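DATA SHEET
Item: assembly model
Revision: 1
Owner: S.N.
Input lines:
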Amino acid sequence: MEDCDFNINIAVVGMGLIGGSYAMALRDLEPKCVIGIDKDKYTLKSALDDGIIDGAYESGGDFLKEVDLIIVALYPKDTIAFIKNNLQYLKKGALITDTSGIKQDIVENINSFLPEYLEFIPGHPMAGKESRGIKGASKDIFKGANYIITPGGKNTSRGLQKIDKMARAIGCSNVTYISPKEHDRIITFTSQLPHVIAVSLMNLHEEEYKDSIELFTGGSFKDATRVAQINSKLWTELFIMNSDNLIEEIENFQNSMEILKKAIMSKDISTMRCIFEKSMLKRKELVKGQ
Amino acid sequence: MEDCDFNINIAVVGMGLIGGSYAMALRDLEPKCVIGIDKDKYTLKSALDDGIIDGAYESGGDFLKEVDLIIVALYPKDTIAFIKNNLQYLKKGALITDTSGIKQDIVENINSFLPEYLEFIPGHPMAGKESRGIKGASKDIFKGANYIITPGGKNTSRGLQKIDKMARAIGCSNVTYISPKEHDRIITFTSQLPHVIAVSLMNLHEEEYKDSIELFTGGSFKDATRVAQINSKLWTELFIMNSDNLIEEIENFQNSMEILKKAIMSKDISTMRCIFEKSMLKRKELVKGQ
């Protein structure tokens, strides 16, 4: 039996949008068994009824002794807590991965208490949508998505390869390896800052603009605010865990905007055109070949 | 013959993305004749070859004496200049409309020199795409789009109805009437500010992030920068013509972002969650029923 084989027992912790989607996508890999863990019993019942999982538990416990691969799809703090609180149940050689959008804090924290006989492979599937909960789950969210693995210094090739293969097997297109620190720095620019912008733009005006947006937009406002429909508990955690990077990047953005603002104020046509030419070329490059 | 009839001679000035799309869309209304005016003879040849227009001229002239409806699809300053420079050719009772994204400056300027026997109906079709020139033109850009008419005080119901009917006939879903001043104020929020943001975000980092964006995004960065592929000449004009509104709105946005930044800096969880809940509900409301 090859290492790429997923004929193993898998547990998915947190059966929300991401966890539910994992359970659905893993089904196609024909695992021995997929167990769902969620504190909400209605979520578990729905997952069982739909045949997404084979067994359901409201929390960890003895049954984890049979599990080979644990995918923790909880919020960052809950992810750390779940692993910490269930160490006594985990089987020697079990692989644990997560789905958190911020890595350095989590990797350092988990590695500080994880015994040698367990391995934590930090993962960040860049998949999601605006809806929440298992009702929005779909194995299609992984199709063509980016998957980032951030080895934390305690990883083995066995562990990394398993998660790499899983990511590709559920449909992700790109699996990228990068350090937790570098991951967080880049994600600040490519994901957290766009969320800060979307939220700040969405909250700019009160009711008086409510109907106007619909009638006076060619689409730019809607594009810029798509991710303003944000999960407040999750993103508060993600931002606070990455606050140093994020504050620095917000300030970089503020400076970039200030340059354009000053050019507009002084009606400096040549600077404005230079700024626009630059952004036009950079954006064109970004979508080249798509 | 009803007033809704487009069995008239129409001239489209500027056969770029917007002008070319007008010519194509107007074809379905079976006008007597559509004349294209563009300084680029290759553009004119292409439009003639494709049967989009019946006649072609590189500038205005005597032929305008036969034209009932003139659609000026040039940049704002060129729009004003074209009308001013061709007054002597224009037929008594002819209707003139434009496509500019900013209205107050243009409406005041044109009304200041337009003789009583001509009528200018200011129009803003909120249609477009990232490509430029007649090659990107398509009558489909108007399908379901917003069309704004900003009466300037000198308009007749005959003139307004004609442009209203034309906008609906070429496929626009919503035709909205609003004063030029109010139009510019709202557009600042719903369109100009999102462009300022997209450009400032796109220009934030240099080459070192080029490959990262592709591998480390779930889509939020691409959505937020779609309109960063901007037409530099056009948008420089639009921003300068509306600079007072735009500077004020950029500052409103800077303040909105500063509130979130301060909450992140002080790890003020309750304020952060409050900000996110608000944006989540507002964004949800925006796309309700779509």
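QC remark: The two ends of chain A are 39 Å apart (CA to CA).
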